[in-house]
Prior knowledge:
Distance between the termini: 13 Å
Shape: globular
CATH class: Alpha Beta
Number of domains: 1
Order of helices and strands: EHEHEHEHHEEEHEHEHHHHHHEHEH
Largest sheet: 8 strands, parallel, barrel
Number of helices: 15
Strand content: 15-25%
Structural class: alpha/beta
Amino acid sequence: MAEFGISMDGRAPVADIPAQARAAEEGGAATLWIACHLYLRDPITTAALALGATRRIKVALMAMSPYSTHPVFIAMAAATLDEMYPGRVILCLGAGAPADLKAAGLEATRPLVTIDETVKICRALLAGEMIDFQGQVFRPSGRRLANSGRNVPIVLAASRARMLRLAGKASDGVLISAATSPPFVKACLADAASPAGRAFLRAGIVYTKLGATEKEGIDPIRRPIGFVLRGAHHAENIRLSGARLDQAALAAAYAAENWPEVDRLVTDDVVRRHAACGTPDQVRAKLEEYRAIGLDEVVIGGLDDAPAIAAALAAVRR
C-alpha cells in the first residue's frame, strides 16, 4: 500500500504551519513536502517550524534549486535541520519553475549538468568529505561542513526524460510535479527506472480537494492547477492527459492576474484529468488511480489549512 504525504506550497501564513504539520502527522502522513516557490514563503524556515511541532513525520525541502541557492548552502540547510531532527529530513533538488526563475532574473542554463553537479556536491558535503569538486558549473574546494556525516536522502524533482533518467541513476528517488495526469506520471516513472535492489522512492504530488459535491471540489483548485499548467514544460503532460488547454492564453491570464479568464480556461475536464477533486468517493478513486501506477508515496497537495489536511487524510484512509 502506498504511503500518503502532504505538500505545503508556501501560500499559507507561516503561523499556521505548526497546526498543519500536526494534522498531517496525526492523520498518518509519511512526509511533509515543503515547496520552494520563489516569492512565496521560505521553505527552510517552514521546515524548521514543521519539524519542531511534530515528533515523527519526515520533512522534505522541495525542490531546492541551485539557480537560486548555491549547492553549498543547500547542503548546509539540510545538514542543519538533520542535526536537530536526525533521520527526519529529505533533500529534494530541482531546477525550479521556469516562469518563477525568469521573474527573479535567473536563467536555468545547462539544467542536466547543473543538477548532476549539485547532487554530487550535496552528497559529498553531507557525507563529511573535504570537498574538491571541479565541475563545469560549480567548483567548491578545500572545505567540509561543520555538522557533516548526515544521512539525508536526495530526491530529484523531475518531469523530462533526461532528468528522470538522472534521478534513477544518481539519486534516492524521484518526485513528480503537481497537476500531472496519471498517464504522464506513468511515463515519468518508466523513464526514472533505477537499478534493481536499490532503495528508490517514487513520489508524486496530486492536487486534492474534498467537497460535498464534485463542483465544490473542483472550483477552489482551478487556480493552483492553472499556476502549474501555464508552464510550457507541461505541454507533454497535457497532451498525454487528453485535455484541451490553451497554455499561452493561460500564461497571459496569470501574468495579468485575470482570474475570471484563468477560471474559464481551466475547465472542469482539465481539473478532472490532473487532480483528485470532489466527494470523498471521487477523491479516493482518483488517488487510487495514481497509486496503482506505481507511486510509493501519493503526496496530497492543494490543501491550505489543518482541518482540510485532517479531513483529506481521514477520507483517503477509510
